Amino acid sequence: MSLMSIKSWLLLTYKIPPEPSRKRVAIWRRLKAWGAVYLQNGVCLLPKTDEHVRRLKMLENDLMESGGEAVILDAVPLDRIQEEKVIARFKADRDEEYREFLNKCADFEQEIAKETAAAHFTYAELEENDVDLRKLQSWLEKIRKLDFYQGTLAQEARMRLKGCEELLDQYAQQVFDAQDENRQQE
């Protein structure tokens, strides 16, 4: 989605009974999982798309069934400055997620470095690291889907994941070489 294709947002305001708190937490989690930005407690925005309209209408129904209330509005920025403020909030939320992702990439890189330094070239270790890489790939895809306005760390995250993929390829080659040597010595 380009900036030009999203000219308005969906504004959701809602109230939900304080108890049980798990319902309030579940609503908050759903909205965050969709990429919503909270302006304040019980007030959030999403880019206006058919999917978001559908999701918010279903959420409104869930809120009503829980004894809560909701209002969904089509919100247009007053001017360019207001639009930029909102977009900055969306980017800040995604960049926070990208920072967490980059930290996990660093952990992955350290794990490969540790195994390489210890010459621990086994298929079991390779498989474990392959699973970790797939988790990173899946996580970045989830963040990317919610990155409506190209967060400032998006490119760095993509490049870092590419580096992790290359690192695992190199490690895999070392595992294959070590296993071939073991077979030849038998």
Give a short summary of the structure.
The protein has 186 residues and is α+β, with helices and mostly antiparallel strands. It has helices at residues 21-33, 50-65, 80-117, 123-146, 154-185; strands spanning 9-15, 37-40, 43-47, 69-75.
Report what the structure shows:
With 186 residues, the protein is of the alpha+beta class. It folds into 2 domains: 3-76, Alpha-Beta Plaits (2-Layer Sandwich); 83-185. Helices cover 66% and strands 12% of the residues. It has a 4-stranded antiparallel β-sheet.
Summed up, the domain count is 2
User: Element order, helices and strands?
Assistant: EHEEHEHHH
Strand order of the largest sheet: 2-3-1-4
What proportion of the residues is helical, as a percent range? 55-70%
In DSSP terms (H or I, runs of 4 or more residues), the helix count works out at 5
- What is the mean predicted local confidence, pLDDT? 92
Structural class: alpha+beta
Distance between the termini: 57 Å
> How many E-type strands?
4
Major sheet attributes:
4 strands, antiparallel
Report the β-strand fraction as a percent range. 5-15%
Measured on Cα atoms, how large is the radius of gyration? 22 Å
Shape: elongated
Low-confidence region ranges: 1-6
Task: Give the oligomeric state of the chains in this entry, treating copies of one chain as homo and distinct chains as hetero.
Answer: single chain
